[in-house]
Amino acid sequence: MFKKILVCVDPYPPGDTLLSNVISLKNCGASEVILAYIFEADTPGLDNMLTTQARPELERQQGLLEESGLKVSIIIQRGVPAQALHDLADTHDVSLIVIGTHCRGIAETIALGSISASLLHLTRRPVLFSHTTMTEKATVSANQDLFAHILFPTDFSDTAEVAFAYLETIVSAMNCQVTLLHVQDGARLTPSLGHRLPTLQDLDTTRLQRLQLWLERSGATKVGVEVIQGNPGDEVVKMAKAKGCSLILMGTQGKGITRELLLGSVAHEVVRHAAQPVLLIPAP
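Above: the chain sequence. Below: its structure as tokens.
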């Protein structure tokens, strides 16, 4: 499913999380990785200097990934980061873009800044946000399981159905554990709907139970169902922590929980505050 991956990196040691997550993607068919460093340099003569400075670290990362059996190439170029990543993804026809969220350089403000928002506007490819810090020990583990326990928030929209298709494929390959979550947005539930809340609760639970049965038939080891009320972004983050999830997988457009995900507060809250990697599946 994720055969060729474009990984946005910078010339600073990313610690183990980003590269370990990339290695975990081998379990979903990843065989080729492109390490891309995009820099913005308006001053003449800086291109060669920045390239020379960046290459040793990128080659180190390349070596670590190649040791795991992945085919790895490096691209270093000047450009507008979001547009350059989008163009590279199209040129090389990658199936996934991976970005570290707490690195220096290009990804320093990725969770909140214009790069992520612009990229999500441009691309129609899945994007994995992988959390890293500059204080992490720079080691890579092939045993880290990105897909051990997936949290899947859904609003039952068409885009959520597209994301569910990805989830089903992952479950079929990995036989992993899944928690299905629907958040009834408390701010949008008007007082006039108060008497219908039990009915809505039952309806949403039934919808999730249908997805639960489908995933169990696809090979999931365990599937939990959660219907709660509250602020969607907050509840997704809290549920991922409470359940000890290894990954949050969700659609990027829809109604309710993901309606404003491209640029709105839900995406910022989840990507900023969740300790887990976040895999965003765009609308077709």
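The first strand starts at residue 4 and ends at 8.
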